[in-house]
Amino acid sequence: MALDEERPPLTGGCLCGRIQYRIDGPFGPVTNCHCTMCRKAQGAAFATNAPVARKDFQLLKGGELITEYESSQGKRRCFCRVCGSPIYSHRVDDPNSLRVRFGTLDGDPGVRAVAHFAVDSKAPWFELTDELPRLNSDRRPMPSK
Predict the structure, then answer these.
(1) pLDDT for residue 8
(2) This prediction's pTM
(3) 44, 55 Cβ separation under 8 angstroms
(4) How far apart are CA 117 and CA 140, in angstroms?
(5) DSSP letters spanning 34-51
(6) Are strands 66-72 and 75-80 parallel, antiparallel or unpaired?
(7) Which of the 8 DSSP states describes residue 109?
(8) Residue 134 in contact with residue 114, Cβ under 8 Å?
(9) Contact 17, 106 (CB under 8 A)
(10) Domain boundaries in the chain?
């Protein structure tokens, strides 16, 4: 599904409800990331996320509860310090965008994943069954079997 710049604003938040946000702009490409860090941060087989302009992301409440963890140099994962829900991540070298975790959205964002990323480190117990492109951690296509 293509980006829909005409969609109404989206809201989202953490599990305990203390953090709430609103997104007023379009998302960039949505990916399902299978890297080890995303799997551990999500507690799931992969993390579905997409970039959004920082100017289009507004915290409605709970900003003081967001805790940042630098998971790799320059990459910060931001989550609720009460319930642990991952909300977004950002890179120090890209101050104008955030990567929003789709599991925290309240509604349908109107866009769908365009690829699986870091498939070379996916969970061995999870099988990919769709036809989305599959990329290695170095962003090259996975070789066919």
Answers:
(1) 81
(2) 0.88
(3) no
(4) 9
(5) --HHHHHHHTSS-EEEEE
(6) antiparallel
(7) -
(8) no
(9) no
(10) 10-121
- Measured at the CA of 92, the angle between CA 78 and CA 62, to 5 degrees, comes to 30
Count of CB atoms within 10 A of residue 69's CB? 12
Range 100-129 average pLDDT: 96
Please state the φ and ψ torsions of residue 55, each to the nearest 5 degrees: -65, -20
What kind of fold does domain 10-121 have according to CATH? Answer: 2.170.150
**Buried b vs exposed e over 113-133: b needs ≥16 C-beta within 10 Å?**
bebbbbbebbeeeeeeeeeee
pLDDT greater than 80 at residue 102: yes
Q: Quick check: 131 pLDDT over 50?
A: yes
Joined together, the tokens standing for residue 104 give 């925290």
